[in-house]
Amino acid sequence: MEGLRLDGRTAVVTGGAGAIGAAICRDLASLGARIVVADVDGQGATALADELNSESLGLGTRVGAPSGPRAPARALRVDLADPGSVTEFCGDAGPVDILVHNAGVSVVEPFVGSDPAAWDLMWQVNLRGPMLLTRLLLPGMTERGWGRLVFISSDGARAGSGGEGAYAATKAGLFGLAKTLAREAARAQVTSNVVCPGPTDTPMLRRVDAEKPGLVDKLARSVPLRRLGVPEDVAGLVAYLCTDRAAYITGQVLSVSGGITMH
């Protein structure tokens, strides 16, 4: 199918060393994109970049893949809570065509008893960081006349989620940001969309389940498809939104939730 390759495009994925971020990196790399694995966990980012580069050596043998090795993946450390780190990262990343805002932090606790210091960290990483990063990288996309912005939010931000008031608030802020950017950058053929994962089987969820046994099973039973999502479910939609086949999709908020939320 035409329009599903990303050869020659450079993609930054924040939180790229995490479960969903790594799945996104792998899918974008499989479509030919040059990957910048961006994460506060520099060691984890390097390990994933090494994995992608090792896999690229055999890419030319796949059906429909371009001949020769893919351009190498790179790992760059970035702390989204530190504006100076974000600025330094953008200087090191170079021209970027695709920016996937996947990084996020969450503290699960009832809102009335929550710690405002934790609010600050979630605001800095989940919302201010993406705002700063986009402000620095979007001008290059508009100048080149092509770009993709994808913001990973949460179905908890769309429908509410017990114990995640501050997290949901910061992730909901991405809706307004993404839709505004969709309008402002449209003439430059830059699209901006939000992907909202529902209950997804990640190490983060398993840690919560360890504290509250039975939570994962309860969540799975509540999903119409009767299973939790996996990182690849999210990555597939993100990868599609980055291709030319999705060039007419912008300003949208899309759930990957197995039907637990319907809009």
From TrEMBL:
One GO MF term: oxidoreductase activity
Isomerase listed as a keyword: no
Keyword Translocase set for record: no
Alphabetical list of Pfam families matching this protein: adh_short_C2
Keywords: Oxidoreductase
GO terms, biological process: monocarboxylic acid metabolic process
UniProt-listed Gene3D superfamilies: NAD(P)-binding Rossmann-like Domain
Family: Belongs to the short-chain dehydrogenases/reductases (SDR) family.
Official protein name in the record: Short-chain dehydrogenase/reductase SDR
Lineage of the species this protein comes from: Bacteria, Bacillati, Actinomycetota, Actinomycetes, Streptosporangiales
